[in-house]
């Protein structure tokens, strides 16, 4: 049995609980992957910490993350805190010698990322990655396989989108993601952008220029007492890039990040169009990938059901559906595999990719403000 990776969790809200749940599903994976054992939890909310008392492996509870980082039993940290805290807390985790899996956008802005990167240079022995779970859907990995095999031929264009409709309720109270102080200038791009970037960046698709359409559609939301307060951040963003891949193809690349998306919940869509093959994936049809077949002079769309053909084999039969919690399990398996030097066919979002993400989003803000195309 592989030696487990002993984790502390900083930020015990929605995603912290998802990580704990995935760690307790580790038997779902075949083989002998190191299990993430959550030995410590840290949150300023007593209610969030109370939930973690249900986790059998968790023995230490903190309201100060610095005290948790001093615990020698902890090998690695999963951190899910508001964006303005990334630079300080991520840096402190790295300086404490703990491996880090941090939530997006890995720094509120480019300057904050540079502070995290400085800590990484001081401690090259620390393994650091950022979360991004949607590429771990088996249908997306089928797209990856086709792309790496060259099946698409010359690329015509590519589109990557996340349409997140949680803010369509105009009476939804304001939260920290609507404030520049906590969420930064990026707005929806910081919180959602990596979901549109992990796959193209990993496939070697690089944006060369960007133009941007940003929208703050709901300028006020109810505050704590019901009084309207300003919403300071962007709700929706569409980025249009000129891009190039490793084969030298140049083509349009579109990235779409929306919090106001009628008819959607947390819909992710990936599309790659090529001269030889085109393919589309959507979480509205999570077990399948659509691809083109040539019929004479025409191309027809076909639908291939992929099922549970996962990167890391699981006990679930291949005919059954794959879902969001399964993608998280696969992502965490990728993290601990790469951390321990085990085979990892598709790793988590890297610091180098995070640097490119910040370059892109910083340029997008400039492009929108100046109504022009900005070169990266």
TrEMBL record:
Keywords, comma-separated and alphabetical: Oxidoreductase
Keyword Disulfide bond: no
GFO/IDH/MocA-like oxidoreductase domain: residues covered: 140-274
SUPFAM superfamilies from the UniProt entry: Glyceraldehyde-3-phosphate dehydrogenase-like, C-terminal domain, NAD(P)-binding Rossmann-fold domains
Residue ranges annotated for the Gfo/Idh/MocA-like oxidoreductase N-terminal domain, each copy included: 5-126
GO MF entries: nucleotide binding; oxidoreductase activity
Keyword hit for Acyltransferase: no
PANTHER family: BCDNA.GH03377 (PTHR43818:SF11)
Protein's name according to its UniProt entry: Gfo/Idh/MocA family oxidoreductase
């Amino acid at each position: 049995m592989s030696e487990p990776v002993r984790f502390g969790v900083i930020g015990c809200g929605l995603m912290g609980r998802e990580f704990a749940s995935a760690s307790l599903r580790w038997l779902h994976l075949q083989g002998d992957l190191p299990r993430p054992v959550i030995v410590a939890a840290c949150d300023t909310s007593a209610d969030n910490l109370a939930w973690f008392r249900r986790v059998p492996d968790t023995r230490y509870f903190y309201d100060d993350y610095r005290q948790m980082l001093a615990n020698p039993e902890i090998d690695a940290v999963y951190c899910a805190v508001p964006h303005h805290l990334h630079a300080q807390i991520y840096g402190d985790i790295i300086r404490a010698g703990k491996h880090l899996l941090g939530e997006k956008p890995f720094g509120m802005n480019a300057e904050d990322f540079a502070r995290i990167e400085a800590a990484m240079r001081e401690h090259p022995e620390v393994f650091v990655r950022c979360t991004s779970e949607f590429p771990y859907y088996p249908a997306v990995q089928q797209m990856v396989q086709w792309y790496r095999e060259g099946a698409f031929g010359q690329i015509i264009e590519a589109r990557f989108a996340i349409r997140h409709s949680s803010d369509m309720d105009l009476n939804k109270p304001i939260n920290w993601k609507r404030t520049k102080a906590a969420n930064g200038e990026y707005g929806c791009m910081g919180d959602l952008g990596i979901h549109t970037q992990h796959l193209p960046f990993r496939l070697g698709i690089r944006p060369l220029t960007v133009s941007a359409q940003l929208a703050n559609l709901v300028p006020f939301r109810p505050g704590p007492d019901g009084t309207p307060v300003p919403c300071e951040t962007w709700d929706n963003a569409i980025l249009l890039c000129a891009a190039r891949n490793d084969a030298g193809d140049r083509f349009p690349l579109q990235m779409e990040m929306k919090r106001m998306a009628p008819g959607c919940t947390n819909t992710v869509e990936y599309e790659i169009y090529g001269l030889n093959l085109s393919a589309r994936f959507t979480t509205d049809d999570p077990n399948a990938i659509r691809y083109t077949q040539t019929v004479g002079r025409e191309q027809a769309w076909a639908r291939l059901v992929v099922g549970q053909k996962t990167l890391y084999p699981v006990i679930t039969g291949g005919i059954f559906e794959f879902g969001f919690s399964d993608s998280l399990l696969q992502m965490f398996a990728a993290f601990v595999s790469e951390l321990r030097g085990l085979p990892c066919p598709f790793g988590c979002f890297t610091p180098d990719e995070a640097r490119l993400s910040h370059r892109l989003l910083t340029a997008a803000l400039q492009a929108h403000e100046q109504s022009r195309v900005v070169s990266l």
